[in-house]
Amino acid sequence: MAAPKVEAKLALKVHPGARRNLVVSVTPDLVDIKVAAPADKGRANAELVRFLAEALGISKSAISIVRGGFSRNKLVAISGLTQEDAVARLSGQASIKTTARQPALLPHD
Known about the structure:
The chain is of the alpha/beta class. Helix content is 21%, strand content 31%. A six-stranded mixed sheet has the order 4-5-1-3-2-6.
């Protein structure tokens, strides 16, 4: 019998065209991310997948954009990680760490 498929699904708010790639904040419900690539011809999505793979320590092929390919609000599936593992790994990368009860605070640019 095959092992059950482990997959995390994360809601993201993505800000393309930033100065650098950055996990701004992480809650169990939403991950706020800035990516350096512009939202042009899929470059921001490609950079998002590359950055998430690096931040999570997994391959790019384990990440897929399920919903929101042309939107800043996205749903991504991450194969091989549980929801808790994915949130914990991204929390370690966040410039601002939040909990589900606290609102995400954005730094002033």
